[in-house]
Write a structure and sequence with these properties.
By secondary structure, the chain is an all-alpha fold. Helices cover about 80% and strands about 0% of the residues. Helix 2 runs antiparallel to helix 4 and helix 3 packs across helix 5. The relative contact order is 0.14.
Length: about 130
């Protein structure tokens, strides 16, 4: 039987990834003096905070506003796509960025499908 996300595992994912992104923001902000582009640090803060918010209110959002997950996941995927393109052009780092980009989109698609399924289950009263 394939592994499926539960409400608890989805909550844990968003809380852990949100915390990691915020730590990365702190490292990027501290490294600005070391020539880390400002736009990389700026993207981490709102995405990290949004992921933490999704994690804190997972069940409520699945029941009342699952589109909030879609918006945050889309914004994250698009911002990573844009950052990867800018990085590839400015720093000539193409191949490693493309691997990360592919993984980002695969994870995003998986999460959207999981949110769609969990939202339906939570709304219908099925234990998710």
């Amino acid at each position: 039987m394939p592994m499926k996300e539960t409400t608890g595992s989805l909550r844990a994912y968003f809380l852990v990834i949100g915390a990691i992104v915020l730590v990365q923001y702190g490292q990027d902000a501290a490294a600005l003096a070391l020539d880390v582009p400002f736009w990389i640090a700026v993207v981490h803060l709102p995405v990290g905070l949004a992921y933490i918010g999704l994690g804190l209110f997972t069940t409520r959002l699945l029941r009342t506003a699952p589109e909030a997950f879609y918006y945050v996941l889309a914004i994250n995927a698009v911002s990573i796509t844009v950052l990867t393109a800018i990085t590839a052009v400015l720093f000539k780092v193409v191949f490693p960025g493309m691997i990360g980009l592919a993984l980002t989109w695969l994870i995003t698609i998986y999460l959207v499908r999981s949110v769609r399924r969990l939202s339906t289950e939570v709304r219908s009263g099925v234990r998710a």
